[in-house]
Model the fold of this input.
Amino acid sequence: MSVEHEYGADEIQILEGLEAVRKRPGMYIGSTSSRGLHHLVYEIVDNSVDEALAGFCDTIDVSINEDNSITVIDNGRGIPVGINHKAGKSAVEVVFTILHAGGKFGGGGYKVSGGLHGVGASVVNALSLWLEVKIYVDGNIYFQRYERGHGIKDIEIIGECEKEKTGTTVTFLPDDTIFEETVFDYDILKQRLREMAFLTKNLRIILRDKRNLENAEDFKEKVKEFHYEGGIKEFVTYLNRSKTSLYPDVLYFEGSKENVYVEVAMQHNDSYMEGSYSFVNNINTPEGGTHLAGFRNALTKTFNDYARNNKLLKDSEPNLSGEDIREGLTAIVSVKIEEPQFEGQTKQKLGNSEARGAVDNIVSEQLTYYLEQNPTVAKIICEKSILSQRAREAARKARDLTRRKTALEGMSLPGKLADCSDKDPKNCEIYIVEGDSAGGSAKTARSRATQAILPLRGKILNVEKARLDKIYANAEIKAMITAFGTGIHDDFDIEKLRYNKIIIMTDADVDGAHIATLLLTFLYRFMPDLIKTGHVYLAQPPLYKLEKNKKVWYAYSDDELNSILVEVGRDNNNKIQRYKGLGEMDAEQLWETTMDPEKRILKRVVWDEELASEIDLTFTTLMGDKVEPRREFIEENAKYVRNLDI
Done:
């Protein structure tokens, strides 16, 4: 997208001051946890991506430095260095020290932007111990340093560069008095930067990890480069790599209508899950909005019209639902819009009405043409949708039958559930326990007032490979659905949740990890709001029991065991027991180590909306049919595994 106005110092508009950021950082970056820490990087990179969207930048270089500071280099126009007359100071200092100041408010600096409404640079500066900015423009290198948000001295020229060289370099070190975690995770940054590169075709983003975290002799700088000429078409191919595509093409539609630039890429695979992701100005909109609604409407109408006109649907058969058509669909819906309006509590849902019409119109027109030109692909998609429709109807009948039985028998809870006596969900928790043996110990150990136990026999159905009708027919899954009380999928209602905590308790071995993953896959696919709202936990049983002189210690890792041995001494009087499974512990030990709220360790399962597509890909890789991506995943991540028993 081209820019018509000149991008000068007075394009930087001032809205308000910066003082509140350090006092209430969570209001600006979501949290001061690891997620908020990484958000700092995205804010600076977003500003560089805005330069790329405007057509002035094609390379962004991001480095994690040895001191854990971050450097972001772009070859855009460079932040204006002249005096902003409203502020009486350089535009650079305005951008980095005044909240809601930037080139994105007046409509002159940028037509569209993904930055956080201009607060990005100043918020990062406010939350950093120090920040340094270098700007290359007009043959000069301009420099300014800030400490905890304040400029140390005025911007100055510190050298010369080639006349044609332009760009901005920002280096910052997060303030360790504000953030709970200050060590950047290379993999988290890698996933987000990859997504940014997919969404801006031809933009090159390079990520470097310059930290010497391993043995100095073995250290080699980690470098990853992202550059996708196909843009979101390649994004769909990447997301489908662990699945089998039903046809070779990635369908791609683009166009502009009512000042909305629309890009859509889509391809069906042989799975039963939909993976549609929407973006506005390169920013993820996890709650969707008008652009996603327009896409879905176009898809449903166009495929039903095609199926009717080509006699793939009989006159007696009902129309395909949108859900039937989207079964096994991977899609990216990306719009660029000048004035995005967001709705909802978290501002993650697009509200612009013109976006719905623009996406609907462009997809309907271009998809209709594609289906007419490619009848084989059209037939494959329609046939899969019709099979989905029939399975959904079978699932509905199974669901209705279950409801009728429940009403007639007056029995809503599964027989093997040992429920708690307290009926206030806020006080209650349920342990999903692997096996009858461990289930028996847990039932004896539990606090009967607030802890319910649901033992599961063996490994539950892998829902990644099953349609809804098979899921409703599975006894172990039915027991969980009934116990939780919320229903699943379209029937899900979190208000009906019977327990505040759902705790997965499995053996600390490979089989236990597999069962936990199967359970998480089910919850992720059919009850995702339980994870999003923080109700799902993993219990942490100990790995070791150490006895000496009638005293007992429990260790939950090899490191903890070694620390205990240092404390008590290593000698023949230690009898160290390695727990292979929950069944090896009696009820008293299970309570003391894993179930007592005063002593236990629980890991909450968290959901990061910003990594939604990567989470989806991970589940598909681990639980899908393709072996090769799973092997690659295991090889890549095996180095992080400890205490592995096979």
Summary: The CA atoms of residues 506 and 516 lie 7 Å apart. Confidence is low (pLDDT under 50) at residues 215-219, 406-411.
